[in-house]
Structures are given as C-alpha cells and as structure tokens.
C-alpha cells in the first residue's frame, strides 16, 4: 500500500505510533553480540587447544571434535535454561556460532515435549535446525562439485 | 547469572585439572612461547649430516614470516615444523609453498615434510627432548617421527 491511499485515520495512527515507538539500540546490540560471540569463540579456541595438547589431533583435525563439544555444551546449557538468558543478552552473538545450532535443536525439543516423544519431540526437534542441515549439506555439495570440476579442468 | 558464573568456574576447574604430574617441560609450553629447539638428527652422526640439519634450520629461520623453527632429520625424511607470525597467518599457504620451493632447490637430495601445524611443532619439540635421554634409541625416535608424519598427513 502506498502512502497516498492511506486514509486520514491511518495517517493519524502512524503519527501516534511513531511518537511512542522505542528506538532500537542497534549499536548497543551490535557491541553485545560482538562480545558474546567473541567469548563463545574464545571458549571454542580453548577447547581446540585442549584437543591439540591432550589428544592426537592436529590444528586441521581438531575442528571436528571442537564443534561437537561446543554443540554439546550449548545443548546442556539450553536444558538448564542458561542459554536462553545468554541469547536474550547477546542476540545474534549467541545464535551465529555453532552453539546456536545446539540451542535451536534442544529448545524445539523442549517446546514440543508435551505433544509426545514421536510426533512431538521427534517430529519437531529439527524444525529450525533442519534448514541449517539441509542448506549446509547442499552448499557443501555445490562447493565440492565446483572444486571437482576445477580440478578436472586443471585450474587448481 | 549466578548459574552461568558457577558453570564457567566449574569448567575452568575441570579444564585446568589436566595439568598432570607438575613437571613442566619445554614441549608443554611450546604453544605459548618461542622455544627455538635445536635441530635433531636421527641418522649416522657424521659431521656432514650435522652441518646439513643446522644449515636447513638456519635457512628456514631466515624467513621473516616465521618465529620458531624445529627441524628433525632422519635417513629418510626431514621434518620442518614452524610457527607463523600471527598477522602472517593469512598467507600460510603461500609461505609453505615458498619454503618448500626454497628447500627443494637448495637440498635436492632431501625429502622434506613441511608443516605449520602447532601439533606437529609440539611433537617435534617433544621428540627433541626425548633424544636427550640415552635410553631413547634411534629406532624409537624413527618410529616417533613416522608417527608425526602420519599425523601430519591425516585430514579428518
């Protein structure tokens, strides 16, 4: 709907709304997200070094167990109700790292627990995380395809 | 918030509990500081061989992008592990390429294994420490080196 077709009442309401609307603290949110996301990554880096030091993982291979551990930790924290608060405070900073994936899985599972184990938990667990898996696998497939083609053509 | 704090404290205690028997060796700190380990030779202890490893180490150390180099030479392979200065880590692949080319041109008879991985560096320092022990035979050392090389080639 363009502005011209709005009725006088609508225009009046819009003015009223603008007067009362709170301004979003974009900069503050960004800083919070930066700190929370950064802290999560510091924990991840510590776990990477832990695996490098005490197990037979190199820098290249330590990534996989680190991701698994981070997801596991965030799943536990979601279950205890800690991650929700972290998410409320940090916003995107807590959702973008892999820990957000664990949170998405478990929070959906908890939410649908009342609907039963199969149709509730099983059917809804990957409600949000399913799209992450789907597009992750698909984009990995596309990238691998491009790389294979480039190798066949001898570019790299 | 209290829960979160106690969780952080708990995980810190959990992670720091793994410090072992209290005896801190150079290889335990290899990740944190510059160790500059001497070159190791697992081979016939001739003057030519000794000069060769030392020359290799000097040549690698001349590169401005690195700050810590460990060289291990056996009769088959020569392992060169190094740490890249933090801001130069963006050019890691390029540095590796440059170094391999330089080494292969200068020492065409040697078979080089070049790695910037921290894990490989730690293992190389550990091997160098173990070589000081007279009970640590050349055979054991060779086995350990083979293990490091296998670790380096592991991708997943």
From TrEMBL, chain A:
The chain crosses the membrane at residues 33-54, 66-83, 132-155. It comes from the Bacteria. It comes from Cytobacillus oceanisediminis. The lineage of its organism: Bacteria, Bacillati, Bacillota, Bacilli, Bacillales. Keywords: Membrane, Transmembrane, Transmembrane helix. Pfam families: SpoVAC_SpoVAEB (PF03862). The keyword Transmembrane applies. This is Stage V sporulation protein AC. PANTHER family: STAGE V SPORULATION PROTEIN AC, STAGE V SPORULATION PROTEIN AC-RELATED. The keyword Transmembrane helix applies. InterPro entries: Spore_V_AC, SpoVA.
Automatic annotation (TrEMBL), chain B:
PROSITE patterns: PROKAR_LIPOPROTEIN. InterPro entries: Spore_lipoprot_YhcN/YlaJ-like. It comes from the Bacteria. This is Sporulation protein. It comes from Cytobacillus oceanisediminis. The lineage of its organism: Bacteria, Bacillati, Bacillota, Bacilli, Bacillales.
